[in-house]
Design goal:
With 306 residues, the protein is mainly alpha-helical. It contains 14 helices and no strands. The longest helix has 36 residues. It is globular.
């Protein structure tokens, strides 16, 4: 319990610092949210700024922003989409990104962890070389290259696959493949490294000397400790998948949170940027807390030290 409380306090402090830095940095950007093809008359611009409280000093705006969050749970209105709140925009887009992220992470785990374990078992042999070469390719090739390639190679040649939109279950396939394969490459490398470290330890060699078979050796003795590096990666990776897949969502026209990150920065939508950063930071904190709890369950030494 002490560890959980400590992590929550640290997370709250991180969110406060993150949101504070974001608040003041975005106001240093050139321009303003009401820029358009035509310059607005001065009196109209002044009225718009007064309507959203942007005519006040940065410190006053900062105080009002935190008061609205803590007292009312209000992230503010969008400065570009009139009459739409930031909370409503996140609530509408988050389920789409969450669905995409869950399927992509499931694919990553199903492909990456078995590949890493298999590579560790066949260290410096053909399966190891082949799997790690594929993993290195997955790490080196960015998403903005993988997404169009899959769209051309699969989407244009398989009739039932959709290359854009979100109105059919088949629309999930290509974005999930893109995100899942890239993250599977990282998981494979981390799983291989963790397994090799555990397999070289004395207790594993002792179990092998006592006649433990390969399956029992891996499942009972090595897997729990060998997967700790991969588990540490899963928390922030999952949060990034469900909030930060900008390129993939743009390439396949998925109406998730990625589009809001891009549009908010382009349009100087202050409240939307602040709300998205706060939401993303909260997801990172919760994901890391979940990873800490999983590691405690997997590692008795961590439980003893905590």
């Amino acid at each position: 319990m002490k560890m959980i409380l400590k992590r929550l306090v640290q997370g709250a402090l991180v969110l406060f610092v993150l949101e504070t830095i974001t608040f003041f940095l975005i106001r240093m950007l050139p321009g303003h949210p009401f820029m358009g093809e035509k310059n607005l008359p001065e009196h109209v611009l002044a009225q718009l700024q007064a309507n959203y409280g942007l005519d006040q000093s940065a410190l006053v705006q900062y105080g009002h922003y935190w008061w609205n969050i803590l007292a009312h749970g209000d992230l503010g209105p969008s400065l570009v989409k009139e009459g739409v709140g930031v909370s409503d925009m996140i609530a509408q887009a988050f389920p789409v990104s969450l669905q995409l992220g869950v399927w992509a992470m499931a694919l990553s785990v199903l492909l990456g962890i078995p590949a890493g374990v298999l590579a560790a078992l066949y260290k410096n042999r053909l399966p190891d070389w082949g799997l790690m070469m594929l993993a290195m390719l997955g790490i080196c090739i960015p998403a903005f290259v993988v997404a169009p390639l899959l769209g051309v190679l699969l989407g244009m040649n398989i009739p039932w696959l959709s290359v854009a939109g979100w109105d059919d279950p088949m629309c999930l396939v290509l974005p999930v493949l893109t995100l899942g394969l890239i993250n599977a490459a990282y998981l494979a490398r981390l799983s291989r490294g963790g397994m090799l470290e555990v397999l070289s330890m004395d207790f594993v060699r002792t179990a092998r000397a006592k006649g433990a078979g390969p399956f029992r050796l891996i499942w009972t003795h090595a897997l729990r400790g060998g997967l700790l590096p991969a588990v540490s990666y899963l928390g922030p990776a999952f949060a990034a998948l469900i909030t930060g897949s900008f390129v993939v969502e743009t390439c396949f026209q998925v109406p998730g949170m990625g589009q809001h990150f891009v549009n908010a920065t382009t349009d100087r939508d202050y409240f939307l940027i602040q709300g998205l950063v706060l939401f993303y930071g909260l997801l990172i904190v919760l994901a890391n807390l979940a990873v800490d709890l999983i590691q405690l369950a997997m590692n008795p030494r961590l439980r003893a030290s905590s």
